[in-house]
Amino acid sequence: MGARLPTDGARRGTVRGGSSGVASAERHPTLATTDARSVRPAVVRALSALARSDITWALLRGESELSSPEGDVDILVAPTDLPRLAEELAGLGFGRLRRHGRGPHIFFLAYDAAEDHWVKLDVVTDLAFGPYQELRLGGGAGCLERRRSAGGLVVLAADDGFWTLLLHCLLDGSGFPDTHRRALLSLADGASASGPLAQTIRGVLPENWGADALLGLAKAEDWVTLDRAAPFIGAHWLSRCRVTGRARALGNRTMRRLGRVPLLCGPGLTVLARPADSALAAAVTERWALPHRRLRLEGSLAARLRNLALTRWHAARGRLVFVELADHGPPSRLLVRVMGARDLGALAFTGHDSAQEATAEIWRRYVERSRG
Protein backbone atom coordinates (compact mmCIF):
# COMPACT_ATOMS: atom_id res chain seq x y z
CA MET A 1 0.00 0.00 0.00
CA GLY A 2 1.11 3.57 -0.57
CA ALA A 3 2.07 6.01 2.11
CA ARG A 4 -0.81 7.54 4.03
CA LEU A 5 -1.76 11.09 3.19
CA PRO A 6 -1.78 13.75 5.90
CA THR A 7 -5.20 14.95 7.01
CA ASP A 8 -4.46 18.58 6.25
CA GLY A 9 -7.89 19.81 5.19
CA ALA A 10 -6.55 22.75 3.21
CA ARG A 11 -4.43 20.53 1.00
CA ARG A 12 -6.94 17.71 0.78
CA GLY A 13 -9.73 20.01 -0.34
CA THR A 14 -12.40 18.84 -2.74
CA VAL A 15 -11.12 18.38 -6.28
CA ARG A 16 -12.30 16.43 -9.30
CA GLY A 17 -12.73 12.88 -8.60
CA GLY A 18 12.23 -2.81 -27.68
CA SER A 19 13.47 -6.03 -26.28
CA SER A 20 11.51 -8.15 -23.88
CA GLY A 21 14.01 -7.56 -21.09
CA VAL A 22 13.01 -5.46 -18.11
CA ALA A 23 15.38 -3.21 -16.21
CA SER A 24 15.98 -4.45 -12.69
CA ALA A 25 16.60 -1.06 -11.12
CA GLU A 26 16.01 -0.97 -7.38
CA ARG A 27 12.44 -0.13 -6.46
CA HIS A 28 11.91 3.23 -4.83
CA PRO A 29 11.25 2.51 -1.13
CA THR A 30 7.91 4.33 -1.05
CA LEU A 31 6.53 3.01 -4.31
CA ALA A 32 3.02 1.62 -3.86
CA THR A 33 2.97 -1.94 -5.17
CA THR A 34 0.62 -4.86 -5.13
CA ASP A 35 1.54 -8.41 -4.28
CA ALA A 36 1.01 -10.34 -7.50
CA ARG A 37 -0.80 -13.03 -5.49
CA SER A 38 -3.63 -10.58 -4.71
CA VAL A 39 -4.22 -9.62 -8.34
CA ARG A 40 -7.41 -10.91 -9.94
CA PRO A 41 -6.89 -14.31 -11.62
CA ALA A 42 -7.96 -13.14 -15.07
CA VAL A 43 -5.51 -10.24 -14.87
CA VAL A 44 -2.75 -12.61 -13.71
CA ARG A 45 -3.38 -14.87 -16.69
CA ALA A 46 -3.27 -11.94 -19.11
CA LEU A 47 -0.10 -10.41 -17.67
CA SER A 48 1.57 -13.82 -17.39
CA ALA A 49 0.86 -14.51 -21.06
CA LEU A 50 2.43 -11.18 -22.01
CA ALA A 51 5.42 -11.84 -19.76
CA ARG A 52 6.05 -15.18 -21.48
CA SER A 53 5.94 -13.60 -24.92
CA ASP A 54 8.38 -11.31 -26.67
CA ILE A 55 5.91 -8.43 -26.49
CA THR A 56 7.29 -5.13 -25.22
CA TRP A 57 4.81 -3.83 -22.64
CA ALA A 58 4.41 -2.35 -19.17
CA LEU A 59 1.61 -1.36 -16.82
CA LEU A 60 0.91 2.29 -17.49
CA ARG A 61 -0.55 3.05 -14.05
CA GLY A 62 -2.72 1.61 -11.31
CA GLU A 63 -0.51 -1.31 -10.27
CA SER A 64 -1.64 -0.82 -6.66
CA GLU A 65 -5.29 -1.27 -7.72
CA LEU A 66 -5.06 -4.57 -9.59
CA SER A 67 -6.72 -6.45 -6.75
CA SER A 68 -9.83 -4.28 -7.06
CA PRO A 69 -12.72 -5.76 -9.07
CA GLU A 70 -13.49 -2.35 -10.59
CA GLY A 71 -11.70 -0.23 -13.16
CA ASP A 72 -9.56 -0.85 -16.22
CA VAL A 73 -6.06 -2.29 -16.38
CA ASP A 74 -3.94 0.24 -18.29
CA ILE A 75 -1.13 -1.23 -20.40
CA LEU A 76 1.41 0.50 -22.62
CA VAL A 77 2.59 -1.64 -25.52
CA ALA A 78 4.91 -1.11 -28.47
CA PRO A 79 2.77 -0.38 -31.59
CA THR A 80 4.47 -3.11 -33.59
CA ASP A 81 3.54 -5.67 -30.92
CA LEU A 82 -0.18 -4.89 -30.87
CA PRO A 83 -1.20 -7.70 -33.28
CA ARG A 84 0.66 -10.28 -31.20
CA LEU A 85 -0.81 -8.90 -28.00
CA ALA A 86 -4.31 -9.20 -29.48
CA GLU A 87 -3.55 -12.79 -30.44
CA GLU A 88 -2.33 -13.65 -26.95
CA LEU A 89 -5.40 -12.11 -25.36
CA ALA A 90 -7.77 -13.84 -27.77
CA GLY A 91 -6.45 -17.17 -26.55
CA LEU A 92 -7.48 -16.15 -23.02
CA GLY A 93 -11.05 -15.27 -23.96
CA PHE A 94 -10.58 -11.54 -24.43
CA GLY A 95 -12.57 -9.84 -27.14
CA ARG A 96 -11.48 -6.60 -28.77
CA LEU A 97 -14.10 -3.89 -28.40
CA ARG A 98 -14.92 -1.57 -31.26
CA ARG A 99 -14.38 1.91 -29.86
CA HIS A 100 -13.83 4.47 -32.59
CA GLY A 101 -12.25 7.85 -32.00
CA ARG A 102 -10.18 6.87 -28.96
CA GLY A 103 -6.77 7.71 -30.36
CA PRO A 104 -4.11 5.17 -29.40
CA HIS A 105 -6.47 3.36 -26.97
CA ILE A 106 -7.58 -0.19 -27.76
CA PHE A 107 -9.91 -2.01 -25.37
CA PHE A 108 -10.13 -5.72 -24.60
CA LEU A 109 -12.75 -7.36 -22.40
CA ALA A 110 -13.11 -10.81 -20.85
CA TYR A 111 -15.52 -12.47 -18.43
CA ASP A 112 -14.13 -14.57 -15.59
CA ALA A 113 -16.90 -17.00 -14.66
CA ALA A 114 -15.04 -18.36 -11.63
CA GLU A 115 -14.76 -14.90 -10.08
CA ASP A 116 -17.99 -13.63 -11.66
CA HIS A 117 -16.56 -10.36 -12.89
CA TRP A 118 -15.32 -8.66 -16.02
CA VAL A 119 -11.76 -7.64 -16.78
CA LYS A 120 -11.17 -4.73 -19.13
CA LEU A 121 -7.75 -3.91 -20.52
CA ASP A 122 -7.07 -0.42 -21.85
CA VAL A 123 -4.09 -0.90 -24.14
CA VAL A 124 -2.34 2.20 -25.47
CA THR A 125 0.35 2.35 -28.11
CA ASP A 126 1.40 5.94 -27.40
CA LEU A 127 0.92 8.64 -24.77
CA ALA A 128 -1.99 10.96 -25.54
CA PHE A 129 -4.09 13.13 -23.23
CA GLY A 130 -7.18 15.30 -23.33
CA PRO A 131 -10.87 14.38 -23.66
CA TYR A 132 -10.30 13.39 -27.29
CA GLN A 133 -6.66 12.29 -26.97
CA GLU A 134 -5.72 15.41 -28.91
CA LEU A 135 -2.60 16.20 -26.85
CA ARG A 136 0.10 13.81 -28.00
CA LEU A 137 3.13 13.47 -25.78
CA GLY A 138 4.87 10.67 -27.61
CA GLY A 139 7.65 9.10 -25.64
CA GLY A 140 5.93 5.74 -25.43
CA ALA A 141 8.96 3.92 -26.77
CA GLY A 142 11.26 5.69 -24.35
CA CYS A 143 9.04 4.73 -21.42
CA LEU A 144 9.13 1.09 -22.47
CA GLU A 145 12.91 1.18 -22.71
CA ARG A 146 13.09 2.43 -19.13
CA ARG A 147 10.46 0.06 -17.68
CA ARG A 148 11.33 -2.04 -14.66
CA SER A 149 10.13 -4.81 -12.41
CA ALA A 150 8.38 -3.91 -9.15
CA GLY A 151 6.48 -6.21 -6.82
CA GLY A 152 6.37 -8.95 -9.45
CA LEU A 153 4.89 -6.58 -12.04
CA VAL A 154 6.34 -4.76 -15.05
CA VAL A 155 5.85 -1.02 -14.50
CA LEU A 156 7.16 2.30 -15.76
CA ALA A 157 10.21 3.89 -14.20
CA ALA A 158 9.28 6.11 -11.25
CA ASP A 159 9.96 9.32 -13.19
CA ASP A 160 7.90 8.19 -16.20
CA GLY A 161 5.15 6.86 -13.95
CA PHE A 162 4.87 10.15 -12.10
CA TRP A 163 4.58 12.36 -15.17
CA THR A 164 2.21 10.12 -17.10
CA LEU A 165 -0.09 9.82 -14.07
CA LEU A 166 0.06 13.56 -13.31
CA LEU A 167 -0.81 14.45 -16.90
CA HIS A 168 -3.64 11.90 -16.81
CA CYS A 169 -5.07 13.58 -13.69
CA LEU A 170 -4.66 17.07 -15.11
CA LEU A 171 -5.82 16.58 -18.69
CA ASP A 172 -8.11 13.55 -18.91
CA GLY A 173 -10.76 14.81 -16.51
CA SER A 174 -10.11 12.24 -13.80
CA GLY A 175 -8.94 14.80 -11.24
CA PHE A 176 -7.05 13.63 -8.18
CA PRO A 177 -8.87 10.77 -6.45
CA ASP A 178 -7.24 9.27 -3.36
CA THR A 179 -5.70 6.36 -5.25
CA HIS A 180 -3.96 8.71 -7.69
CA ARG A 181 -2.81 10.99 -4.87
CA ARG A 182 -1.18 8.09 -3.07
CA ALA A 183 0.49 6.91 -6.26
CA LEU A 184 1.80 10.38 -7.09
CA LEU A 185 3.23 10.79 -3.61
CA SER A 186 4.90 7.40 -3.88
CA LEU A 187 6.47 8.30 -7.20
CA ALA A 188 7.30 11.97 -6.57
CA ASP A 189 10.65 11.40 -4.83
CA GLY A 190 11.82 9.40 -7.84
CA ALA A 191 10.62 12.02 -10.32
CA SER A 192 12.68 14.83 -11.81
CA ALA A 193 11.80 18.13 -13.46
CA SER A 194 14.69 17.50 -15.86
CA GLY A 195 13.88 13.90 -16.78
CA PRO A 196 13.01 12.70 -20.30
CA LEU A 197 9.25 13.29 -20.14
CA ALA A 198 9.58 16.54 -18.22
CA GLN A 199 11.90 17.82 -20.95
CA THR A 200 9.39 16.72 -23.58
CA ILE A 201 6.50 18.66 -22.05
CA ARG A 202 8.54 21.72 -21.07
CA GLY A 203 7.71 23.45 -24.33
CA VAL A 204 3.94 22.99 -24.02
CA LEU A 205 3.50 24.08 -20.39
CA PRO A 206 2.56 27.65 -19.40
CA GLU A 207 5.30 29.75 -17.82
CA ASN A 208 3.63 29.73 -14.40
CA TRP A 209 3.06 25.99 -14.49
CA GLY A 210 6.38 24.53 -15.50
CA ALA A 211 7.65 21.06 -14.63
CA ASP A 212 9.39 22.34 -11.49
CA ALA A 213 6.21 23.99 -10.23
CA LEU A 214 4.04 20.93 -10.92
CA LEU A 215 6.48 18.58 -9.22
CA GLY A 216 6.70 20.91 -6.22
CA LEU A 217 2.92 21.11 -5.88
CA ALA A 218 2.59 17.33 -6.00
CA LYS A 219 5.24 16.89 -3.30
CA ALA A 220 3.45 19.53 -1.19
CA GLU A 221 0.16 17.66 -1.76
CA ASP A 222 -1.48 20.83 -3.04
CA TRP A 223 -4.10 19.03 -5.09
CA VAL A 224 -6.47 21.99 -5.15
CA THR A 225 -3.95 24.23 -6.90
CA LEU A 226 -3.05 21.48 -9.33
CA ASP A 227 -6.70 20.94 -10.13
CA ARG A 228 -7.21 24.65 -10.76
CA ALA A 229 -4.19 24.71 -13.06
CA ALA A 230 -5.52 21.88 -15.24
CA PRO A 231 -7.65 24.00 -17.66
CA PHE A 232 -4.82 26.48 -18.24
CA ILE A 233 -2.33 23.70 -18.94
CA GLY A 234 -4.67 21.97 -21.39
CA ALA A 235 -5.53 25.21 -23.20
CA HIS A 236 -1.88 26.30 -23.47
CA TRP A 237 -0.81 22.89 -24.75
CA LEU A 238 -3.55 22.95 -27.39
CA SER A 239 -2.51 26.45 -28.46
CA ARG A 240 1.02 25.17 -29.10
CA CYS A 241 -0.26 22.46 -31.45
CA ARG A 242 -3.34 24.26 -32.69
CA VAL A 243 -3.58 22.67 -36.13
CA THR A 244 -2.71 19.07 -35.28
CA GLY A 245 -4.38 19.15 -31.87
CA ARG A 246 -7.66 20.55 -33.11
CA ALA A 247 -7.59 18.19 -36.08
CA ARG A 248 -7.18 15.20 -33.76
CA ALA A 249 -9.96 16.44 -31.48
CA LEU A 250 -12.32 16.97 -34.41
CA GLY A 251 -11.42 13.65 -36.00
CA ASN A 252 -11.85 11.63 -32.81
CA ARG A 253 -15.05 13.42 -31.83
CA THR A 254 -16.48 12.73 -35.29
CA MET A 255 -15.44 9.07 -35.20
CA ARG A 256 -17.08 8.59 -31.81
CA ARG A 257 -20.35 9.78 -33.25
CA LEU A 258 -19.98 7.75 -36.42
CA GLY A 259 -19.14 4.74 -34.27
CA ARG A 260 -22.82 4.53 -33.38
CA VAL A 261 -23.70 3.78 -37.00
CA PRO A 262 -24.56 0.07 -37.38
CA LEU A 263 -22.02 -0.54 -40.15
CA LEU A 264 -19.20 0.53 -37.80
CA CYS A 265 -20.51 -1.07 -34.61
CA GLY A 266 -19.77 -4.64 -35.53
CA PRO A 267 -22.26 -7.49 -35.22
CA GLY A 268 -24.16 -8.08 -32.03
CA LEU A 269 -25.72 -11.29 -30.78
CA THR A 270 -29.36 -12.36 -30.59
CA VAL A 271 -30.26 -14.94 -27.95
CA LEU A 272 -33.66 -16.60 -27.78
CA ALA A 273 -35.00 -17.39 -24.33
CA ARG A 274 -38.10 -19.47 -23.64
CA PRO A 275 -40.38 -18.53 -20.72
CA ALA A 276 -38.77 -21.13 -18.47
CA ASP A 277 -35.39 -19.45 -19.03
CA SER A 278 -36.50 -15.87 -18.37
CA ALA A 279 -35.07 -15.76 -14.83
CA LEU A 280 -31.70 -17.00 -16.03
CA ALA A 281 -31.76 -14.55 -18.93
CA ALA A 282 -32.44 -11.74 -16.48
CA ALA A 283 -29.48 -12.83 -14.33
CA VAL A 284 -27.21 -12.76 -17.38
CA THR A 285 -28.31 -9.28 -18.40
CA GLU A 286 -27.61 -8.05 -14.88
CA ARG A 287 -24.02 -9.23 -15.30
CA TRP A 288 -23.50 -8.16 -18.91
CA ALA A 289 -20.90 -5.40 -19.12
CA LEU A 290 -21.82 -4.09 -22.57
CA PRO A 291 -24.99 -2.48 -23.96
CA HIS A 292 -27.84 -4.96 -24.18
CA ARG A 293 -31.61 -5.15 -24.57
CA ARG A 294 -34.39 -7.52 -23.51
CA LEU A 295 -37.45 -7.76 -25.71
CA ARG A 296 -40.54 -9.96 -25.57
CA LEU A 297 -42.37 -11.38 -28.56
CA GLU A 298 -45.93 -11.13 -27.35
CA GLY A 299 -49.03 -9.04 -27.75
CA SER A 300 -50.54 -7.89 -31.01
CA LEU A 301 -49.04 -8.52 -34.40
CA ALA A 302 -47.96 -4.88 -34.60
CA ALA A 303 -46.18 -5.14 -31.25
CA ARG A 304 -44.35 -8.30 -32.27
CA LEU A 305 -43.29 -6.82 -35.61
CA ARG A 306 -42.04 -3.73 -33.79
CA ASN A 307 -39.91 -5.83 -31.44
CA LEU A 308 -38.60 -7.89 -34.34
CA ALA A 309 -37.44 -4.66 -36.00
CA LEU A 310 -35.90 -3.49 -32.72
CA THR A 311 -34.08 -6.79 -32.40
CA ARG A 312 -32.39 -6.32 -35.75
CA TRP A 313 -31.62 -2.67 -34.99
CA HIS A 314 -29.97 -3.31 -31.61
CA ALA A 315 -28.05 -6.34 -32.88
CA ALA A 316 -26.80 -4.27 -35.82
CA ARG A 317 -25.39 -1.80 -33.27
CA GLY A 318 -23.29 -4.52 -31.68
CA ARG A 319 -25.55 -5.21 -28.71
CA LEU A 320 -26.59 -8.40 -26.99
CA VAL A 321 -30.33 -8.84 -27.48
CA PHE A 322 -32.40 -11.28 -25.44
CA VAL A 323 -35.65 -12.14 -27.18
CA GLU A 324 -38.03 -13.77 -24.72
CA LEU A 325 -40.50 -15.99 -26.52
CA ALA A 326 -44.12 -15.94 -25.40
CA ASP A 327 -44.84 -19.63 -25.96
CA HIS A 328 -43.10 -22.83 -25.00
CA GLY A 329 -42.71 -24.18 -28.49
CA PRO A 330 -39.50 -23.95 -30.54
CA PRO A 331 -39.16 -20.83 -32.70
CA SER A 332 -39.85 -21.26 -36.37
CA ARG A 333 -37.02 -21.05 -38.88
CA LEU A 334 -38.64 -17.98 -40.39
CA LEU A 335 -38.74 -16.26 -37.00
CA VAL A 336 -35.08 -17.05 -36.36
CA ARG A 337 -34.14 -15.66 -39.76
CA VAL A 338 -36.14 -12.48 -39.28
CA MET A 339 -34.42 -11.86 -35.94
CA GLY A 340 -30.99 -12.29 -37.49
CA ALA A 341 -30.16 -15.40 -35.45
CA ARG A 342 -30.18 -17.82 -38.37
CA ASP A 343 -26.61 -19.04 -37.75
CA LEU A 344 -27.08 -19.34 -34.00
CA GLY A 345 -30.58 -20.61 -33.48
CA ALA A 346 -31.83 -20.67 -29.92
CA LEU A 347 -29.13 -20.79 -27.30
CA ALA A 348 -30.42 -23.39 -24.90
CA PHE A 349 -30.02 -22.36 -21.31
CA THR A 350 -30.81 -25.90 -20.32
CA GLY A 351 -27.62 -27.49 -19.02
CA HIS A 352 -26.26 -24.29 -17.52
CA ASP A 353 -26.26 -24.65 -13.75
CA SER A 354 -25.63 -21.00 -13.05
CA ALA A 355 -25.83 -17.52 -14.48
CA GLN A 356 -22.02 -17.45 -14.55
CA GLU A 357 -21.88 -20.47 -16.87
CA ALA A 358 -24.56 -19.01 -19.12
CA THR A 359 -22.81 -15.63 -19.20
CA ALA A 360 -19.49 -17.26 -20.09
CA GLU A 361 -21.09 -19.24 -22.93
CA ILE A 362 -22.89 -16.21 -24.33
CA TRP A 363 -19.71 -14.12 -24.10
CA ARG A 364 -17.80 -16.80 -26.01
CA ARG A 365 -20.39 -16.70 -28.78
CA TYR A 366 -20.44 -12.90 -28.73
CA VAL A 367 -16.69 -12.77 -29.24
CA GLU A 368 -16.83 -15.39 -32.01
CA ARG A 369 -19.50 -13.36 -33.80
CA SER A 370 -17.49 -10.14 -33.51
CA ARG A 371 -14.38 -11.84 -34.90
CA GLY A 372 -16.30 -13.44 -37.74
Question: Can you offer a commentary on this structure?
Answer:
By secondary structure, the protein is α/β, with parallel strands linked by helices. The chain has two domains: about 35-255, Beta Polymerase, domain 2; about 265-370. Helices cover about 40% and strands about 15% of the residues. It contains 14 helices and twelve strands. It has helices spanning about 40-50, 80-90, 140-145, 160-170, 180-190, 195-200, 210-220, 225-240, 240-260, 260-265, 280-285, 300-315, 335-340, 355-370; strands at about 55-60, 75, 95, 105-110, 115-125, 130, 135, 150, 155, 270-275, 290-295, 320-325. The strands form four sheets. The chain has a five-stranded mixed β-sheet, sandwiched between helices. Strand 3 and strand 4 (about 105-110) form a beta hairpin. It is elongated, with a radius of gyration of 24 Å.
What does the radius of gyration come to? 24 Å
- At the fold tier of CATH, the topology name of the largest domain is Beta Polymerase, domain 2
* C-alpha termini separation: 43 Å
Give the helix proportion (percent range).
40-55%
Which secondary structure elements does this structure contain, and how are they paired or packed?
Elements: H1 41-52, E1 57-61, E2 73-77, H2 82-90, E3 95-96, E4 105-112, E5 117-124, E6 128-129, E7 135-136, H3 140-145, E8 148-150, E9 153-155, H4 158-171, H5 178-188, H6 196-201, H7 211-219, H8 223-240, H9 242-258, H10 262-265, E10 269-273, H11 278-287, E11 292-297, H12 301-316, E12 320-325, H13 333-338, H14 355-371
Parallel strand pairs: 2-5, 10-12, 11-12
Antiparallel strand pairs: 1-2, 3-4, 4-5, 6-7, 8-9
Helix pairs in contact: 4-5, 11-14
